[in-house]
Amino acid sequence: MYAVKAIYDGVNFKPSQPISMKGTYEVVITFLEPLDKVVADEKQIKKHPRSKFIGSWKDKIRMSEDFNAPLDEMQEYME
Length: 79
Hints:
Layout: E1 6-8, E2 13-15, H1 35-38, H2 42-47
Antiparallel strand pairs: 1-2
């Protein structure tokens, strides 16, 4: 299975990335939301498609101080 995001303008589907598959395939088309509902700032998204996600997990994930410390269970393999 291969998923491709695209924009439908009422007539054509415009993939947001190149499709390099050869041959004939069965496809399923799912309409999600109208773009005016999803895209708040089109210029920002064109500038960097993932920019709205950068830093979104800040202060939500914490790692313990001993994260990189050797595990006791692996001691016999580390000798």
